TrEMBL record:
Anti-sigma-28 factor FlgM C-terminal domain: residues covered: 34-85
Protein name: Negative regulator of flagellin synthesis
Repressor keyword on record: yes
UniProt cross-references to NCBIfam families, sorted A to Z: FlgM_jcvi
BP-aspect Gene Ontology terms: bacterial-type flagellum organization; negative regulation of DNA-templated transcription
The organism of origin for this protein: Brevibacillus brevis (strain 47 / JCM 6285 / NBRC 100599)
Family: Belongs to the FlgM family.
Keyword terms: Bacterial flagellum biogenesis, Cell projection, Cilium, Flagellum, Repressor, Transcription, Transcription regulation
Length: 91
């Protein structure tokens, strides 16, 4: 039974190549720049979080809470049906 292949040098060569970085005139190894790309979906999510924390949004939520507690908050059944229908069509 053979466990190690005698001619397998690929990993050794890959390891050896990592030490061959070119050193600049200053004696330092040149480094690449780090880069971050934020997707449009992530930007949308961030905007929604900011919108939720806005003072106008908080005021609206407080008004709705008060209406619900007092029993004055009513939504038409047609609006509920429209929202449910659009949700199920997306799936």
């Amino acid at each position: 039974m053979r466990i190690n292949e005698p001619n397998r040098v690929g990993m050794i060569n890959a390891y050896n190549k990592t030490g061959n970085n070119q050193v600049g005139k200053s004696g330092k190894i040149p480094m690449g720049k780090d880069e971050v790309n934020i997707s449009t979906e992530a930007l949308e999510m961030q905007k929604q979080v900011e919108d939720v924390n806005s003072p106008q949004r908080r005021e609206k939520v407080e008004q709705l809470k008060k209406q619900v507690e007092e029993g004055r908050y009513h939504v038409s059944s047609e609006r509920i049906a429209d929202k449910l229908l659009s949700f199920w069509k997306k799936l």
